Amino acid sequence: MYDINKVRQDFPILSREVYGKPLIYLDNAATTQKPLCVLDAMREEYLNVNANVHRGVHYLSQQATDLHEAARETVRAFINAKSTSEVIFTRGTTEALNLVVSSFCDEFMKEGDEVIVSTMEHHSNIVPWQLQAAKKGICLKVIPINEKGEILMDEYEKLFTEKTKIVSVAHVSNVLGTINPVKEMIRIAHEHGVPFMLDGAQSTPHFSVDVQDLDCDFLAFSGHKMYGPTGVGVLYGKEDWLDRMPPYQGGGEMIDSVSFEKTTFEKLPFKFEAGTPDYVATHGLATAIKYMQDLGMDNIHAHEKMLTDYAMKRMKEIEDMRIFGEAEEKDAVVSFLVGNIHHLDMGTLLDRLGIAVRTGHHCAQPLMIRLGIQGTVRASFALYNTTEEIDTLVEGIKRVSKMF
Ligand code: PLP
Known about the structure:
There is one protein chain. This protein is of the alpha/beta class and about 400 residues long. It has two domains: about 5-30 and about 295-404, Alpha-Beta Complex (Aspartate Aminotransferase, domain 1); about 40-295, Aspartate Aminotransferase, domain 2 (3-Layer(aba) Sandwich), CATH 3.40.640.10. It is built from 14 helices and 17 strands. Strands 4-10-9-8-7-5-6 form a seven-stranded mixed beta sheet, with helices on both faces. Pyridoxal-5'-phosphate binds near residues 93 and 199.
Protein backbone atom coordinates (compact mmCIF):
# COMPACT_ATOMS: atom_id res chain seq x y z
CA MET A 1 0.00 0.00 0.00
CA TYR A 2 2.80 2.42 0.95
CA ASP A 3 5.72 1.95 -1.42
CA ILE A 4 8.56 3.66 0.43
CA ASN A 5 11.10 3.07 -2.35
CA LYS A 6 8.83 4.77 -4.85
CA VAL A 7 8.17 7.61 -2.41
CA ARG A 8 11.91 8.17 -1.93
CA GLN A 9 12.42 8.50 -5.66
CA ASP A 10 10.23 11.62 -5.54
CA PHE A 11 12.92 13.30 -3.39
CA PRO A 12 16.24 13.28 -5.30
CA ILE A 13 18.10 14.96 -2.42
CA LEU A 14 17.69 11.76 -0.38
CA SER A 15 20.08 9.96 -2.74
CA ARG A 16 22.98 12.34 -2.18
CA GLU A 17 25.97 11.69 0.02
CA VAL A 18 27.55 13.84 2.71
CA TYR A 19 31.15 13.17 3.80
CA GLY A 20 31.06 10.18 1.45
CA LYS A 21 28.17 8.62 3.38
CA PRO A 22 24.56 8.26 2.28
CA LEU A 23 22.53 11.15 3.66
CA ILE A 24 20.12 10.23 6.45
CA TYR A 25 17.87 13.22 6.89
CA LEU A 26 16.21 13.25 10.32
CA ASP A 27 15.67 17.00 10.75
CA ASN A 28 12.16 17.07 9.36
CA ALA A 29 10.57 18.97 12.24
CA ALA A 30 12.80 21.90 11.23
CA THR A 31 12.02 21.58 7.54
CA THR A 32 11.13 18.80 5.11
CA GLN A 33 12.64 18.02 1.72
CA LYS A 34 10.63 18.85 -1.41
CA PRO A 35 9.29 16.34 -3.93
CA LEU A 36 10.00 16.86 -7.62
CA CYS A 37 6.35 17.69 -8.34
CA VAL A 38 6.59 20.78 -6.10
CA LEU A 39 9.83 21.95 -7.71
CA ASP A 40 8.41 21.29 -11.20
CA ALA A 41 5.19 23.17 -10.46
CA MET A 42 7.06 26.23 -9.24
CA ARG A 43 9.57 26.17 -12.11
CA GLU A 44 6.73 25.84 -14.59
CA GLU A 45 4.94 28.84 -13.09
CA TYR A 46 8.05 31.03 -13.20
CA LEU A 47 8.83 29.81 -16.73
CA ASN A 48 5.42 30.22 -18.30
CA VAL A 49 2.94 32.06 -16.14
CA ASN A 50 4.70 34.58 -13.93
CA ALA A 51 2.80 37.84 -13.36
CA ASN A 52 1.57 39.70 -10.31
CA VAL A 53 -1.80 38.49 -9.08
CA HIS A 54 -5.19 40.15 -8.57
CA ARG A 55 -4.54 43.54 -10.14
CA GLY A 56 -3.91 42.64 -13.77
CA VAL A 57 -6.37 42.41 -16.63
CA HIS A 58 -3.85 40.67 -18.86
CA TYR A 59 -3.75 36.94 -19.58
CA LEU A 60 -0.74 35.99 -17.46
CA SER A 61 -1.96 37.90 -14.43
CA GLN A 62 -5.31 36.16 -14.62
CA GLN A 63 -3.65 32.78 -14.99
CA ALA A 64 -1.37 33.45 -12.00
CA THR A 65 -4.39 34.66 -10.00
CA ASP A 66 -6.28 31.48 -10.89
CA LEU A 67 -3.40 29.32 -9.63
CA HIS A 68 -3.10 31.38 -6.44
CA GLU A 69 -6.81 31.22 -5.69
CA ALA A 70 -6.95 27.52 -6.61
CA ALA A 71 -4.21 27.03 -4.00
CA ARG A 72 -6.43 28.73 -1.43
CA GLU A 73 -9.23 26.30 -2.27
CA THR A 74 -6.80 23.35 -1.95
CA VAL A 75 -5.82 24.58 1.52
CA ARG A 76 -9.47 25.12 2.47
CA ALA A 77 -10.34 21.55 1.55
CA PHE A 78 -7.18 20.21 3.24
CA ILE A 79 -8.20 21.62 6.65
CA ASN A 80 -11.95 21.49 5.93
CA ALA A 81 -12.54 25.21 6.48
CA LYS A 82 -16.05 26.40 5.66
CA SER A 83 -14.91 29.01 3.19
CA THR A 84 -11.83 30.33 1.40
CA SER A 85 -12.50 33.65 3.20
CA GLU A 86 -11.11 31.90 6.27
CA VAL A 87 -7.79 30.98 4.62
CA ILE A 88 -5.12 33.67 4.84
CA PHE A 89 -1.71 33.18 3.29
CA THR A 90 1.20 34.23 5.49
CA ARG A 91 4.97 33.70 5.44
CA GLY A 92 4.61 30.79 7.86
CA THR A 93 3.42 29.74 11.29
CA THR A 94 5.35 32.52 13.00
CA GLU A 95 3.72 35.25 10.96
CA ALA A 96 0.28 33.66 11.32
CA LEU A 97 0.64 33.54 15.12
CA ASN A 98 1.94 37.12 15.24
CA LEU A 99 -0.96 38.28 13.11
CA VAL A 100 -3.54 36.87 15.51
CA VAL A 101 -1.71 37.95 18.66
CA SER A 102 -1.36 41.52 17.43
CA SER A 103 -4.76 41.92 15.86
CA PHE A 104 -6.69 40.00 18.54
CA CYS A 105 -5.00 41.95 21.35
CA ASP A 106 -5.73 45.27 19.62
CA GLU A 107 -9.42 44.52 19.48
CA PHE A 108 -10.20 42.24 22.40
CA MET A 109 -7.58 42.55 25.16
CA LYS A 110 -6.74 45.19 27.73
CA GLU A 111 -4.37 45.51 30.66
CA GLY A 112 -4.67 42.59 33.09
CA ASP A 113 -6.36 40.26 30.57
CA GLU A 114 -4.92 36.77 30.28
CA VAL A 115 -3.82 34.31 27.60
CA ILE A 116 -3.29 30.63 28.39
CA VAL A 117 -0.34 28.87 26.72
CA SER A 118 1.43 25.60 27.60
CA THR A 119 4.90 24.75 28.92
CA MET A 120 5.82 23.10 25.63
CA GLU A 121 5.24 26.06 23.30
CA HIS A 122 7.65 27.10 20.56
CA HIS A 123 9.03 30.62 21.07
CA SER A 124 6.76 31.81 18.27
CA ASN A 125 3.77 31.15 20.54
CA ILE A 126 5.37 32.80 23.57
CA VAL A 127 7.34 35.85 22.46
CA PRO A 128 4.53 37.57 20.46
CA TRP A 129 2.35 37.40 23.61
CA GLN A 130 5.23 38.79 25.67
CA LEU A 131 5.58 41.70 23.26
CA GLN A 132 1.92 42.46 23.91
CA ALA A 133 2.47 41.98 27.65
CA ALA A 134 5.13 44.70 27.52
CA LYS A 135 2.96 46.97 25.37
CA LYS A 136 -0.47 46.44 26.90
CA GLY A 137 0.06 44.72 30.23
CA ILE A 138 -1.61 41.41 29.34
CA CYS A 139 -0.54 38.29 31.31
CA LEU A 140 0.54 34.80 30.26
CA LYS A 141 -0.75 31.80 32.21
CA VAL A 142 1.14 28.55 31.61
CA ILE A 143 -0.32 25.02 31.61
CA PRO A 144 2.08 22.63 33.39
CA ILE A 145 3.06 19.17 32.07
CA ASN A 146 3.81 15.82 33.70
CA GLU A 147 7.04 13.80 33.52
CA LYS A 148 5.95 12.08 30.31
CA GLY A 149 5.48 15.44 28.63
CA GLU A 150 1.69 15.52 28.74
CA ILE A 151 -0.52 18.48 29.53
CA LEU A 152 -2.13 18.37 32.98
CA MET A 153 -5.76 18.80 32.08
CA ASP A 154 -6.95 19.50 35.64
CA GLU A 155 -4.41 22.30 35.96
CA TYR A 156 -5.47 23.63 32.55
CA GLU A 157 -9.06 23.98 33.70
CA LYS A 158 -7.98 25.77 36.87
CA LEU A 159 -6.21 28.51 34.87
CA PHE A 160 -9.42 30.04 33.50
CA THR A 161 -10.58 33.25 35.15
CA GLU A 162 -12.97 35.98 34.06
CA LYS A 163 -9.90 37.71 32.56
CA THR A 164 -8.98 34.83 30.23
CA LYS A 165 -9.46 36.05 26.66
CA ILE A 166 -7.81 33.34 24.53
CA VAL A 167 -5.96 30.00 24.68
CA SER A 168 -3.04 29.35 22.33
CA VAL A 169 -1.42 25.90 22.30
CA ALA A 170 0.68 23.68 20.02
CA HIS A 171 -1.13 20.71 18.49
CA VAL A 172 2.10 18.66 18.57
CA SER A 173 5.25 19.55 20.52
CA ASN A 174 8.30 20.01 18.30
CA VAL A 175 10.53 18.71 21.12
CA LEU A 176 8.53 15.99 22.88
CA GLY A 177 6.35 14.85 20.00
CA THR A 178 3.34 14.94 22.34
CA ILE A 179 0.03 15.14 20.49
CA ASN A 180 -2.01 17.33 22.78
CA PRO A 181 -5.69 16.51 23.44
CA VAL A 182 -6.72 19.67 21.68
CA LYS A 183 -10.30 18.71 20.84
CA GLU A 184 -11.06 18.40 24.56
CA MET A 185 -9.01 21.51 25.34
CA ILE A 186 -10.96 23.50 22.76
CA ARG A 187 -14.25 22.25 24.21
CA ILE A 188 -13.18 23.42 27.68
CA ALA A 189 -12.06 26.84 26.36
CA HIS A 190 -15.41 27.29 24.62
CA GLU A 191 -17.24 26.32 27.82
CA HIS A 192 -15.51 29.35 29.33
CA GLY A 193 -16.50 31.46 26.32
CA VAL A 194 -12.87 31.75 25.17
CA PRO A 195 -11.48 31.19 21.63
CA PHE A 196 -8.67 28.75 20.93
CA MET A 197 -5.67 29.17 18.63
CA LEU A 198 -3.89 26.01 17.51
CA ASP A 199 -0.25 26.03 16.43
CA GLY A 200 -0.38 23.34 13.76
CA ALA A 201 3.24 23.58 12.61
CA GLN A 202 3.96 20.00 13.74
CA SER A 203 0.54 18.44 13.12
CA THR A 204 -0.50 19.37 9.59
CA PRO A 205 2.55 17.57 8.06
CA HIS A 206 1.65 14.31 9.80
CA PHE A 207 -2.10 13.73 10.02
CA SER A 208 -5.44 15.19 8.94
CA VAL A 209 -6.42 18.32 10.79
CA ASP A 210 -10.10 19.20 10.42
CA VAL A 211 -10.83 22.68 11.76
CA GLN A 212 -14.59 22.13 11.86
CA ASP A 213 -14.27 18.84 13.70
CA LEU A 214 -11.81 20.34 16.22
CA ASP A 215 -13.81 23.57 16.31
CA CYS A 216 -10.62 25.63 16.75
CA ASP A 217 -10.96 29.36 16.19
CA PHE A 218 -7.53 29.83 14.63
CA LEU A 219 -4.96 27.44 13.13
CA ALA A 220 -1.43 28.36 12.02
CA PHE A 221 0.94 26.23 9.93
CA SER A 222 3.98 26.39 7.63
CA GLY A 223 4.36 25.13 4.06
CA HIS A 224 8.03 24.23 4.37
CA LYS A 225 7.38 21.68 7.10
CA MET A 226 4.95 19.79 4.87
CA TYR A 227 6.98 19.34 1.66
CA GLY A 228 6.11 22.79 0.30
CA PRO A 229 8.39 25.77 -0.30
CA THR A 230 9.78 28.14 2.31
CA GLY A 231 8.20 31.54 2.77
CA VAL A 232 4.56 30.50 2.73
CA GLY A 233 2.19 29.42 5.47
CA VAL A 234 -1.43 29.65 6.44
CA LEU A 235 -3.62 31.26 9.03
CA TYR A 236 -7.07 29.77 9.30
CA GLY A 237 -9.54 31.81 11.33
CA LYS A 238 -13.27 31.59 11.86
CA GLU A 239 -14.87 34.29 9.77
CA ASP A 240 -16.69 35.71 12.73
CA TRP A 241 -13.42 36.45 14.56
CA LEU A 242 -11.46 37.60 11.50
CA ASP A 243 -14.24 39.98 10.51
CA ARG A 244 -14.04 41.73 13.86
CA MET A 245 -10.23 41.93 13.95
CA PRO A 246 -8.36 44.95 12.52
CA PRO A 247 -5.79 44.51 9.71
CA TYR A 248 -2.31 43.42 10.75
CA GLN A 249 -0.37 45.27 8.06
CA GLY A 250 -1.34 48.03 5.66
CA GLY A 251 -0.50 48.36 1.98
CA GLY A 252 -1.62 47.19 -1.42
CA GLU A 253 -4.11 44.34 -1.91
CA MET A 254 -5.78 44.80 1.50
CA ILE A 255 -7.74 48.00 0.79
CA ASP A 256 -11.09 48.76 -0.74
CA SER A 257 -10.48 52.50 -1.21
CA VAL A 258 -7.86 54.95 0.00
CA SER A 259 -7.89 58.70 0.36
CA PHE A 260 -5.86 60.89 2.69
CA GLU A 261 -8.98 61.31 4.78
CA LYS A 262 -10.16 57.72 5.03
CA THR A 263 -9.28 54.18 4.01
CA THR A 264 -11.67 51.24 3.82
CA PHE A 265 -10.50 47.67 3.78
CA GLU A 266 -11.00 44.73 1.43
CA LYS A 267 -13.19 41.84 2.46
CA LEU A 268 -11.72 38.61 3.84
CA PRO A 269 -9.24 37.07 3.31
CA PHE A 270 -7.54 39.99 1.53
CA LYS A 271 -7.90 42.35 4.51
CA PHE A 272 -5.04 40.39 6.10
CA GLU A 273 -2.87 40.02 3.01
CA ALA A 274 -1.06 43.31 2.46
CA GLY A 275 1.39 43.45 -0.43
CA THR A 276 2.25 41.02 -3.22
CA PRO A 277 1.78 37.48 -1.93
CA ASP A 278 4.28 34.74 -2.72
CA TYR A 279 1.93 33.39 -5.36
CA VAL A 280 4.44 30.90 -6.78
CA ALA A 281 4.95 29.49 -3.29
CA THR A 282 1.20 29.17 -2.70
CA HIS A 283 1.00 27.09 -5.89
CA GLY A 284 3.95 25.05 -4.61
CA LEU A 285 2.20 24.53 -1.28
CA ALA A 286 -0.98 23.38 -3.02
CA THR A 287 1.08 20.92 -5.06
CA ALA A 288 2.66 19.60 -1.84
CA ILE A 289 -0.76 19.18 -0.25
CA LYS A 290 -1.99 17.24 -3.28
CA TYR A 291 1.14 15.08 -3.11
CA MET A 292 0.38 14.23 0.53
CA GLN A 293 -3.28 13.61 -0.25
CA ASP A 294 -2.36 11.28 -3.11
CA LEU A 295 -0.24 9.23 -0.70
CA GLY A 296 -3.09 9.47 1.82
CA MET A 297 -2.83 11.32 5.12
CA ASP A 298 -3.79 8.16 7.01
CA ASN A 299 -1.06 6.17 5.25
CA ILE A 300 1.49 8.88 6.05
CA HIS A 301 0.42 8.89 9.69
CA ALA A 302 0.56 5.10 9.95
CA HIS A 303 4.03 4.99 8.37
CA GLU A 304 5.38 7.69 10.68
CA LYS A 305 3.77 6.12 13.76
CA MET A 306 5.50 2.87 12.87
CA LEU A 307 8.82 4.76 12.56
CA THR A 308 8.31 6.57 15.89
CA ASP A 309 7.43 3.36 17.77
CA TYR A 310 10.38 1.59 16.18
CA ALA A 311 12.77 4.42 17.05
CA MET A 312 11.54 4.60 20.66
CA LYS A 313 12.03 0.85 21.05
CA ARG A 314 15.47 0.72 19.45
CA MET A 315 16.82 3.80 21.18
CA LYS A 316 15.94 2.42 24.58
CA GLU A 317 18.50 -0.35 23.89
CA ILE A 318 21.26 2.24 24.17
CA GLU A 319 23.05 2.50 27.50
CA ASP A 320 22.50 5.71 29.48
CA MET A 321 19.82 6.84 27.02
CA ARG A 322 17.42 9.51 28.28
CA ILE A 323 14.39 10.15 26.08
CA PHE A 324 12.39 13.34 26.59
CA GLY A 325 8.72 12.88 25.76
CA GLU A 326 7.02 9.57 26.43
CA ALA A 327 3.42 10.65 25.98
CA GLU A 328 0.80 8.01 25.15
CA GLU A 329 -0.04 10.06 22.06
CA LYS A 330 3.25 10.85 20.37
CA ASP A 331 4.28 11.68 16.86
CA ALA A 332 7.37 11.65 14.66
CA VAL A 333 9.86 13.26 17.07
CA VAL A 334 12.40 11.66 19.42
CA SER A 335 14.46 13.98 21.66
CA PHE A 336 17.27 12.46 23.66
CA LEU A 337 20.56 12.74 25.55
CA VAL A 338 23.07 9.98 26.22
CA GLY A 339 24.96 10.02 29.51
CA ASN A 340 26.92 13.23 29.90
CA ILE A 341 27.54 13.70 26.19
CA HIS A 342 26.73 17.26 25.18
CA HIS A 343 23.95 17.48 22.57
CA LEU A 344 26.17 19.52 20.28
CA ASP A 345 28.95 16.90 20.36
CA MET A 346 26.47 14.12 19.62
CA GLY A 347 24.93 16.09 16.73
CA THR A 348 28.28 17.04 15.24
CA LEU A 349 29.62 13.49 15.32
CA LEU A 350 26.39 12.02 13.92
CA ASP A 351 26.66 14.55 11.10
CA ARG A 352 30.08 13.09 10.22
CA LEU A 353 28.32 9.76 9.78
CA GLY A 354 25.91 11.36 7.32
CA ILE A 355 23.06 11.65 9.84
CA ALA A 356 21.34 15.04 10.02
CA VAL A 357 19.70 15.68 13.39
CA ARG A 358 19.01 18.93 15.23
CA THR A 359 20.57 19.90 18.54
CA GLY A 360 19.88 22.63 21.07
CA HIS A 361 16.79 24.11 22.69
CA HIS A 362 14.63 23.82 19.55
CA CYS A 363 13.14 27.30 20.17
CA ALA A 364 11.53 25.99 23.36
CA GLN A 365 13.75 27.34 26.13
CA PRO A 366 10.97 27.45 28.77
CA LEU A 367 10.45 23.71 28.16
CA MET A 368 14.20 23.12 28.56
CA ILE A 369 14.03 24.93 31.91
CA ARG A 370 11.13 22.67 32.94
CA LEU A 371 13.13 19.59 31.92
CA GLY A 372 16.22 20.91 33.73
CA ILE A 373 18.46 20.65 30.67
CA GLN A 374 20.06 23.02 28.16
CA GLY A 375 19.16 21.14 25.03
CA THR A 376 18.56 17.78 23.39
CA VAL A 377 19.42 15.91 20.24
CA ARG A 378 16.29 15.59 18.14
CA ALA A 379 15.58 13.06 15.41
CA SER A 380 12.35 13.81 13.56
CA PHE A 381 10.70 11.70 10.89
CA ALA A 382 8.89 12.29 7.64
CA LEU A 383 6.95 10.25 5.12
CA TYR A 384 10.16 9.20 3.31
CA ASN A 385 12.18 7.86 6.28
CA THR A 386 12.82 4.16 6.81
CA THR A 387 13.47 1.75 9.66
CA GLU A 388 16.91 1.10 8.12
CA GLU A 389 17.73 4.78 8.63
CA ILE A 390 16.72 4.47 12.27
CA ASP A 391 18.99 1.42 12.59
CA THR A 392 21.86 3.50 11.23
CA LEU A 393 21.01 6.28 13.69
CA VAL A 394 21.06 3.82 16.59
CA GLU A 395 24.40 2.38 15.46
CA GLY A 396 25.71 5.94 15.07
CA ILE A 397 24.65 6.92 18.60
CA LYS A 398 26.30 3.78 19.98
CA ARG A 399 29.51 4.60 18.10
CA VAL A 400 29.58 8.17 19.37
CA SER A 401 28.84 6.98 22.92
CA LYS A 402 31.82 4.59 22.82
CA MET A 403 34.10 7.48 21.85
CA PHE A 404 33.28 9.28 25.10
N1 PLP B 1 5.51 26.24 16.12
C1 PLP B 1 6.10 25.03 16.20
C2 PLP B 1 5.52 23.98 17.08
C3 PLP B 1 7.24 24.77 15.43
O1 PLP B 1 7.83 23.58 15.52
C4 PLP B 1 7.75 25.81 14.60
C5 PLP B 1 9.00 25.59 13.84
O2 PLP B 1 9.82 24.77 14.16
C6 PLP B 1 7.10 27.03 14.56
C7 PLP B 1 5.98 27.20 15.32
C8 PLP B 1 7.58 28.15 13.69
O3 PLP B 1 7.49 27.80 12.35
P1 PLP B 1 8.08 28.75 11.21
O4 PLP B 1 9.51 28.98 11.58
O5 PLP B 1 7.92 27.96 9.96
O6 PLP B 1 7.29 30.00 11.22
